[in-house]
Design brief:
Strand content of chain B: 15-25%
Oligomer: heterodimer
Mean pLDDT of chain B: 98
CATH superfamily of the domain at 215-314 in chain B: CO dehydrogenase flavoprotein, C-terminal domain
Structural class of chain B: alpha+beta
Low-confidence stretches of chain A: none
Distance between the termini of chain A: 38 Å
CATH topology of the domain at 215-314 in chain B: Enolase-like, domain 1
Structural class of chain A: alpha+beta
CATH class of the largest domain in chain A: Mainly Alpha
Number of strands of chain A: 5
Shape of chain A: globular
Low-confidence stretches of chain B: none
CATH architecture of the largest domain in chain A: Orthogonal Bundle
GO molecular function, one term (chain A): oxidoreductase activity, acting on the aldehyde or oxo group of donors
CATH class of the domain at 215-314 in chain B: Alpha Beta
Protein name (chain A): Xanthine dehydrogenase YagT iron-sulfur-binding subunit
Strand order of the largest sheet of chain A: 2-1-5-3-4
Helix content of chain B: 25-40%
Radius of gyration of chain A: 16 Å
Pfam families (chain A): Fer2, Fer2_2
Distance between the termini of chain B: 53 Å
Number of strands of chain B: 12
CATH architecture of the domain at 215-314 in chain B: 2-Layer Sandwich
Order of helices and strands of chain B: EEHEEEHHHHHHEEHEEEEEHHH
Domain 2Fe-2S ferredoxin-type (chain A): 1-75
Order of helices and strands of chain A: EEHEEEHHHH
Shape of chain B: globular
CATH topology of the largest domain in chain A: DNA polymerase, domain 1
CATH superfamily of the largest domain in chain A: [2Fe-2S]-binding domain
Number of helices of chain A: 5
Helix content of chain A: 25-40%
Largest interface: A-B, 37 and 32 residues
Keywords (chain A): 2Fe-2S, Iron, Iron-sulfur, Metal-binding, Oxidoreductase
Number of helices of chain B: 11
Number of domains of chain A: 2
Strand order of the largest sheet of chain B: 4-5-8-6-7
Amino acid sequence: MILVVNGVEHELDLDPRTTLLDALREHIGLTGAKKGCDHGQCGACTVLLDGRRVNSCLILAVTQQGTPITTIEGIDHPVQRGFLEHDGFQCGYCTPGQICSAVGMLDEVAQGWPSAVTDGGGDDLLSDAEVRERMSGNLCRCGAYANMVPAIKEAAAQ
Amino acid sequence: MKTFTYRTATDTAGGLEPGAAFLAGGTNLVDLMKLGVATPDVLVDVTRLGLDEVTSLEGGGLRIGAGVRNSDLAAHPAVRRDFPVLSQGLLAGASGQLRNMATTGGNLLQRTRCRYFMDATKPCNKHAPGTGCPARQGDHRNLAILGGSEHCIATHPSDMAVALVALDAVVNTSQRSLPVSDLYRLPGDDPSRDTILDHGELITSVDLPALAMPSTYRKVRDRASYAFAVSSIAAAAKVADGRVTDVRLAFGAVAPKPWRALIAEEALRGKPATRESFLAAADAELAAAEPLKDNAFKIPLVRNLVASVLEGLTS
């Protein structure tokens, strides 16, 4: 099968049980996406599929032949600078997933997608409450959330 | 994970060999395969069938392709405008990542998150028929108070399906069309089957008839976001001259299926739109509840949800 990751084609011979996360980490050597819970509950494995954020641990690699896949290694985005400037991490294990998720989330906001805390239209889709709700699929064991919120908001303003 | 073979479906006619399963977003099925709870021999990928469109129906309704992702459906302008209960229900569920993956058809067919069902090493009449149900004596805080049986008290986990039941949605499959409320069956003495669908019957779309009332969804959960419901409610109501002229109510996380509260609806029609009426209607519906030691709190919780949500909709 052929996986297109960060613009590069990789020809792989994989067992159909292989998740996209394991294909990236164990077969392509891109270890930025992390295996946290391996059950879609923590968000550490977040990558972008055709620009949309997803949990790569719950996706079978065989289903994504030809789909453009972007991992943290292929991202160059103000969110990364924001995390550095606002100290949006402690141990760093969840950070690649947080950043991929934030990049995908900001694109969702740009398209005007609502969230569970959005009331009607025209409100600030990047208030603190919005950022927290929209990023709730990414857990941080160290609890660095308080610094991630301004990091993401500042990146969005750029 | 048990080995399987993979292929992509080439048409919407449905049909599967024994031991095969359809794969859509995979957010539940792949997880259950990792856990050894789902053990298909063959996966048939239905995400390349072009079932990813939302189209208008005559009279103001919508047809939602079974492959439409939960995030796209929640953000769809016509859904937000005409069916807010559905948009809100979808956004109350899962995370941004999971909603980008999960499909309409797959959301309907997701399995319970009862901890005994999710653990292949535990007895469970749903994943291993005849092995018993430890939940009655064990952890049942978030399990059913309505519609359960001595063999199973699992709750259906979907938020979207609760909204669809309240909306009188119709499910179109490779074989037939049926009201979404008829899609699900109660466990009785065979909890292994959640729905009445035949093996290989493929959901192709869901139709929403027009809704001429305000509607809303409210979900109570143990944390502010990204958790399954402890209880939820989908509601729509219309009031004229201070009286309820039309109402729809459905409850989530209280029964093995999204629970349409027909008794409460009947009790409300023509009644004054007051908190007293709303509470009386909730009591009528909940009279059949059979709570256990640790989930009886859901009765006052749902009762208060009914009153609070209907007050908001009708004021």
